[in-house]
Amino acid sequence: MTNRRLLSLVLPRSVPGRLGLGAAIGYAALLGLVSVAYRTFLYPAPTAGLEPQVKGTTLWRLPTERGEVIALFGAPRDQKPVIVHFHGNGEELVDTSGLARELVSRGFGVLFVEYPGYGISKGQPTNEHAIYDAAERALRELDDRGFGPDRIVLVGQSLGSGVAAEMAVRSKGARLVLISPYTSIPDMVRRYLPIVPAQLLVRDRFDTFEKAASIRVPTLVVHGATDKLVPVEMGHQVASAIAGAELLILDGAGHNDVWRGGRLLDALARHAEPLEARGARSRAPLN
Predict the structure, then answer these.
(1) Cα 8 to chain center, whole Å?
(2) Do the domain assignments include residue 79?
(3) What is the pLDDT of residue 175?
(4) Cα separations in angstroms, 113 against 6, 58, 85, 91
(5) CATH code of 259's domain
């Protein structure tokens, strides 16, 4: 039997039938592409590899089975808490130097954690659980140095909001700040590709909305009113799902300019204030 004859038996004879078959093949190809390539978009992993230069801090290189965990650490002054920060997916550690510098100038301790495969940590695989493991390793080191969960404010921005939420569920901090949070990564994929069954294809979930009921610490949710990447509606959803969460909408702010003007820094400082009082009590002399 010739190839032409075989094709004539397999392919639909009608034009609508052939169009439908073509559409099905195209859709299957799209699903395969999303399943394989979504991590390329989720983790663009900039790799300039420059070390942040922030006075009063040191760069930790913590050994693990997967390779080094990189984190920028600065001890707090007086009884200030430690701000543990997880950055967005398009940043690397050096890009957060300005924020670290501002927090240090205000007396806060800082622990800014790098993601595997990013910046100085390039060469390591990047996925949800690898990022959680890196965060856990850095927080364990912080605890070993005398800064336990009761002295920690967990802060996550954009992608990092999912990391901070997971660490809060694991009881790694006493306060939580979620900046430009999404409900979950599958929800974000559906926003841009509504015809794709993202729940089945996307393995890196960062499902903050699902975990919200398990978050037991005071939480501040911050979102730019004109965020075009992660819609402000997701900020509302996340805040509504976390018991007692405070929602701060920054008028005129989008996705990447939420720190501009100092409103967010001031809100973060206010949110952290109760931990300062707690730190002072824990060090009060015994009578």
Answers:
(1) 52
(2) yes
(3) 98
(4) 59, 12, 6, 12
(5) 3.40.50.1820
